[in-house]
Amino acid sequence: SFVQWVHHKRFGAVPRYRKTPSHRLSSQLWIKQNIRHTNANQGGNGGNSGDIKGNNAMLMLSLPLLGWLLKEEEKEPIVPTVEPEEEENPFVYDAPLGIWEILKILATAFTFVPFKLLLMLPFVTLSYGLSKLAMLGLSNSDLNHPLSRWRSALLQPLPYLSRAILFLMGYYWIQTNGKRDNSAPILVSNHISYVDYLVLSYLNNPSFVLDPQTAEIPIIGTILQASQCLNLSPNPHSQKEVLNILTNRIQTRSDSKPTVIFPEREMTNGTHIINFTPGLFATGEPVQPVVLQYPSKYFSPALPVVGPHFFVSFFRLLTQVYNRVEVTYLPVYTPSEKEKRDTSLFSQNVRRVMLKASGLLDTGYTTDDARLISLAMKLNIPTSAINVEVAKVIELDNLKYSDIEAMLKRFHEMDSNNDGTLDLNEFSKYLGFDQPSPYTKRLFCLLDANNSGSVDFTEFLIGMSIISEGIEDDQLISLAFKSINSRDGTLEISEVANVLSAYSDLSSEELQLIFNKIDTNRDGHINLNEFSAFVKQHPEYNILKIARDAAAAKRESRKKIKQTATRGPYHNR
């Protein structure tokens, strides 16, 4: 916000920066990294005074630059005035229903819409019938090879049938910018709606790389399969197989039929282009970017994860007086040798070209965000609570997507009223305490970063990742266990009490509750296996960190006692 304000004062314009869905997420991750960095620098003698001096030197070097930026406004107080705006989630489309839309639905639901459906039925039936005939007797592996002439002839009418269906859906004209270049065997397109398939089928008669869910849709899946589509599943073996088939198809096919890939892998609301999946660019072949846009005032056919149901979207599309679609063909992008070796760089550069030409917004969202939102919907968690940018968390926090999913499920278990936030009572009850205690309050404060009294999923994710550090390190767990164990390889309740009492006040009932949770076999002792399993399965209790801190305090106390003993009576006097 401050950088934007400075830029505005100096140059008269506020640049558009990529913003995360939650600015608090970025700040928390930044603080977390700096906490780790500071802790790492405080291990030697003298603390981190050298770092402080270095930071002061950098500050002094940066002041002249700041003065140059602000030299025209020296008398004006430096007060940031540009408030950061929340970025729109590209996987959410609320499909507004105003008065005009309601009137259109009432006027066309029993007149215009049935008439359109009646006219559309023969075109859909003919497309489906021709597709079934063309695939008669063929296996899935046979569809990976060129079709015979008579089968190809049966499929020739499909682009024109697609155009007829589009016309009845209200797309009376299709605005195209640029031209299709046959030198590129692959078309790279953004993905907004099921209408994408019809538009691109009419204009290019291509094959598609599809997710298995799309290929399984009745009627539509059959028609798409007839165009020799490739099914791409998350399985790495499947991805490698698709790439091999695609490469072989490009090298052996004599016609100009292209293959369309949707590297976003998920439909969006049409306002952004999310991060691409780089694996689809591994062929190293030239690609032609294509940008689809559906300008609309009342309703868009966008079908993201959070949006209208397919049949609701299709019905509302038929109630519109007319619909618009714009298709922009960009120049062919030929990868360099470096981009051929680095598919991530290749995909990023193609996406950057599409963003610049289309005016659509940049974002850090990926297909993993859509998967996380889908999981939240299944768990009945409000989608507004899922305000994280998965790629950023994975990059900065060394987490896997599966870890984030597991934390979302745990968050759901704690959120007893399903309001998308946790309060102290919910957190305490999940830990097994009937009422909040000093122990649970202190644990809750570790998660409540902004001291608001409630924890959303962003705070929970970041806080739990901090608490969970080291829980997969068996050696670290073993050292923590041995450091607080004074007997024959097991922990007594008195030893657990000594450790926890140094962290927070606990009643005897609360102490017994925690001990029983760790002591799974109820023999009155905690062995290393029980301790390790509890630490890994329940990091929210922060037992590993508490044990390590207690062990460190114990070592420090012994060190001071030893130093005092070695000084001698004369030194003490």
What do these coordinates show?
The protein is of the alpha/beta class. 53% of the residues lie in helices and 6% in strands. The chain has helices at 2-11, 23-41, 49-69, 99-108, 112-134, 149-155, 158-168, 195-204, 212-215, 220-226, 236-252, 310-319, 337-341, 343-358, 367-378, 390-397, 401-414, 424-430, 438-447, 457-467, 474-483, 493-501, 508-518, 528-537, 543-572, and strands at residues 175-177, 186-189, 207-210, 230-231, 259-261, 272-273, 287-293, 326-329, 361-362, 422-423, 454-455. Helix 21 packs across helix 25. The radius of gyration is 31 Å and the shape is elongated.
Could you give the topology of this structure?
Blueprint: H1 2-11, H2 23-41, H3 49-69, H4 99-108, H5 112-134, H6 149-155, H7 158-168, E1 175-177, E2 186-189, H8 195-204, E3 207-210, H9 212-215, H10 220-226, E4 230-231, H11 236-252, E5 259-261, E6 272-273, E7 287-293, H12 310-319, E8 326-329, H13 337-341, H14 343-358, E9 361-362, H15 367-378, H16 390-397, H17 401-414, E10 422-423, H18 424-430, H19 438-447, E11 454-455, H20 457-467, H21 474-483, H22 493-501, H23 508-518, H24 528-537, H25 543-572
Parallel strand pairs: 1-8, 2-5, 2-7, 3-4, 3-5, 6-9
Antiparallel strand pairs: 7-8, 10-11
Helix pairs in contact: 2-20, 5-6, 5-7, 5-10, 7-8, 15-17, 17-20, 21-24, 21-25
